[in-house]
Every structure is written in structure tokens, then in C-alpha cells.
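In response to reviewer comment 3 from the previous cycle, which asked for concrete evidence that the modeling workflow produces usable outputs, we include below a single protein chain processed end to end. The sequence was submitted unchanged, and the resulting C-alpha cells are shown without manual editing.
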Amino acid sequence: MVLAGKVHVEILVRAPADKFHEMFWQKPHHISNVSPKKIQKCVLHEGDWGSVGSVIVWNYAIDGNALVAKEIVEAIDVENKSITFKVIEGDALKEYKSFKLVLQAIPKGDFTLVHWTLEYEKLNKNIRVPLKELELLIHLSEHIDDHLVKA
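The workflow returned the following C-alpha cells.
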């Protein structure tokens, strides 16, 4: 049985791609103000905001459950407006041997295509595919879009 997998979602938003990418690249600590029910806190644990190798701790909620993820910024591609986070501690690693989030914001005329990829390896075959986490990212993307369009 294969335990590793990827799930993807694409969301079309109105915010400019560079501004959307910037929220996760340089201003993730602002996201809790934009979507406080989804992200309660985002704290820089090590390094500098916007730098590869920085460690960020996220307090977030799925289905009303308070969860924590400590992530390292694994890659930043400013030109392609992408960022990769790898979970190194926290609730996700209770079910997954590895868990990675990749965001890319792609300009599409007057809109932006936000592409999220979750790469994971389950600890065993009984662990669910991380669709709830994907749903969280969809809602978060919508909240960020609304915030950036109003700004």
C-alpha cells in the first residue's frame, strides 16, 4: 500500500499574485488578523520573516480543534511567486511521517490562480488523506483575497 501522496487545489482570486504571495512570504504574522477563526497566531521561532530556513509556529483550527504546526521555510521563489513550508513538529506529524505545503500564486490577467499542493506520507494506511487541511487553505485563501482587495 502506498502511503505517500499529494493533493492539490486551485482557487481563482482577485488579489494581485505578488500581494498574495507576499502574505505568506514576508507577512505570515498578519494572517491571524485577516482570518482569526482559522489562524489564531503565527510566530517567528527562528530566523527572519521571508527567509529560507526560518522557522514559523502556526496556531490554527480545523473543525474547532486547536492545532499547532512548526514549519521551516524550505524554499522561496520570488520570480514564480512560490513558497514551500515543511512541517517539522506539531499535530500533523501525529498522523503523517512528513507533511509539506507548497503555495504558488500565478498571475492570470486581472486575477490570480492560487495553487496549493500538500505533499504527505501517512504513518499507516488508516490515516486519512489531508482534505480538511486543504479545505482550511481554501478558506484562508478566500479570506486573504477579501482582505487584499479591500486594502
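The first helix runs from residue 17 to 25. We consider this sufficient to address the reviewer's concern, and the full set will be provided in the supplementary archive.
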